[in-house]
Amino acid sequence: MRLEKQKQAHVLYSGQKNESIGMSLDMDSAQVLMQMLSKNLYSDSIGSTIRECASNALDSHRRAAVNKPIIVSLVQNDSNNWEFSVEDFGTGLDHYDVENIISKYGKSTKRNSDTELGMMGLGFKAPLAYASSFYFTCRKDGMERKYMMYEGEETNTIDLISETDTTEDNGVKVIVPIKWGDRHDFLKKIKQQLAYFEDVYFNVDDVDNNFTIHRSKLFQFSELADDDKLHICLDNVYYPIDFDKLGIDTLYIPVGLTFKITDGLFPTPNRESLIYTKETKSKILKKLAEFSDYFVEKYNENVTDSDDVKGYLDYYYNSSREVQLHGKVIDLNNLKDYITVPFAKPKLEGVDNWDISTFSRHEFNYLLGEYRCSYRYENTRMYQVKESSWGRSVSWNDMDKYHFKMQDGMRGHKKAYLREMCEDMVTTPRIGGPRPLIRVSFIRKTKSYPLTSTNNKDNYYDILKLTNYPKSQWRSVIKDFQYVESLLLNPIKDADLITPPQDWIDDRKANTVSKMRATKAAKGQKLAGDFNCKKAEDLLRYNDGRKCKFVSHRINIQTVEEGNTTYVYTHHDDYMKVDNLYEETNRMDIIYITFSKRELDLLETSSVIDNLVSYDDFIKGHDLFIKFMTAYKCHKFMQKWDDIFDKIEYITKIKSSLSDKLTDIKTYQNQYIKGGRYAGYPTASGFFKEESIVYNDKLCDLIDELDLFFAENQYVNDLSGAMSYHNSPKLIDCMAQLFKCNGVSYNASYTFLKDKKQEQE
After folding, report:
1. Is the CB of residue 560 less than 8 Å from the CB of residue 608?
2. What is d(CA 46, CA 197) in angstroms, rounded to the nearest whole number?
3. Considering only the top CATH level, what class is 29-204?
4. d(CA 297, CA 490)
5. pTM of the model as a whole
6. Which of 87, 350, 541, 735 pairs with 590 at a CA distance of 20 to 30 A?
7. What pLDDT digit, counting tens, does each position of 448-461 carry?
């Protein structure tokens, strides 16, 4: 590398110059200086050893115009110790060269070269930064000499070990012994430091010599490199970028920016990094901008107009802008601060006025925001999707999940026929097979966007940002939006156009009559006092949050009256009222039933039966309902003071009257509802206004009493929460002491720990 001398500076003096003193090297400090220039010069001793040895070898080949590769080895020697070596077949070295060049720090033959990498006269000594000694063999003009360079007591030294005649070509082989455990680091650094070197043969396990280096004027990358950050290749030498010195964020792009030695970038004396002058930073940033624009142009080459609505929407919805290059992924979003070339904007055929690029990511939800999932077939059942259901919204990028669109209602023969169609569409899961279809969805248009609205943003004016367009274009922009919407809906079957065939209707009617006859036969002849109804029973599978199912049933007034079970009834249409109670009252002797209007009218003319209660009368204050709601009041109280209830067995040792009260509350809860620490407040209770609920006065008074006591004596809850099997005696005693100090009664039989100790003594 050519070393340019600094131009003569203009020095301004103030005052009289009496004497000038020339600076020089203190030869008495030679060992210290050599230590600094070899041992202490490199922060990465392994990487620098590899790089410097390989660079010197390649420089020798350039000087000798040799076309064969240098050999880099990582092998075991005859003693089974690992060695790193670099061998070249270039100009070679004789004893004069070793004595007058290699042995000299700062001596270099490369300072006037624009093609060679060295210039400081330090690289050959780089192995001393890693090892206290290493070997090198030199062949030149028919003589082979083996040397050892090592750290001496007073100065670094080179010993000539042997000298023999040879017929081999000129060249140099440097051999560095590897310390135990460093083989992996050498392997890693070989890949890093030599990833971009040409004319290198690797005699190294885990390195395939068939790897490819991709080069261009702007950038290059190597299949051997594993750096995931942007770096620099200065005449094929790898240099990491110091992003802090460059003043930019780290760029995770696995390629190197290409520079030549003549481009004006200079490495530090140890060649581990670059010198970041103002000019260097400017050149790197300029190259980075050219690099960024290059890849944007590559990306734009693959962006074309089409009639693919999904691809069109995906482009604008996804912020990702990536380019695949020989297996490397370039994320262009990482380069947004350096890109000057605009990204291409693909057009969808038929959309001429609406600029979809103005849509933010969440605004894409407006594309099918007028539609909702109205029906769903799943688990052999067709059901209407609730407004509050998680699957109610229709997403433009999940169109494969929607199978039918409809506006007409779904009932009677049409509903049954569609249910059969859905049953045929559902597939059975197979191991290793395609993803099965387990549900079929129907969507419906539930609203239409107005042009403007004062109530919300769901209008064309706000959705499409019509202020960005001349008013004369508004209609065209809206039509473009509606056209995109229609393209998304086109693949979906229109359920309104599906009509059950007449022969299918006839078969269904015949089957219905047959089932009715079979049911009637199974029930037998309707006797006096019999009422047909539907009875709530446990679900066999999940059904959109339902708690029970209703099956055909018959009750007899006489049987109900004589039994101990309470029957709570309502109309068929009000089944959800009792559905909400079914699961939460399953510890009570209650059966929920629904009647048709005809049966309800007949029931009104019958005698009053205590065990047969209407839903409305039940929640007004029936004894079982009072127990149910009181049990949940107990449950809420237990959740509030759950640490105390967990430690009833400990509390009884010091205050049995308190533990008895706690046990009463816990027993009442467990008797009528499902309790437990993690059980939530009942779903059913949310349907009732607190002020209208009747509770058990005795339990409510007890809850109020204890709640006040715990609030005034917070330490009871704190100590209960801290109690465990190992520390309970001490904490129980602590609670007893606090009871005593606060004037709270406790068991007369309780003995404090200090008193027990005194008794034992």
Report:
1. no
2. 17
3. alpha beta
4. 34
5. 0.58
6. 541
7. 999 998 888 899 99
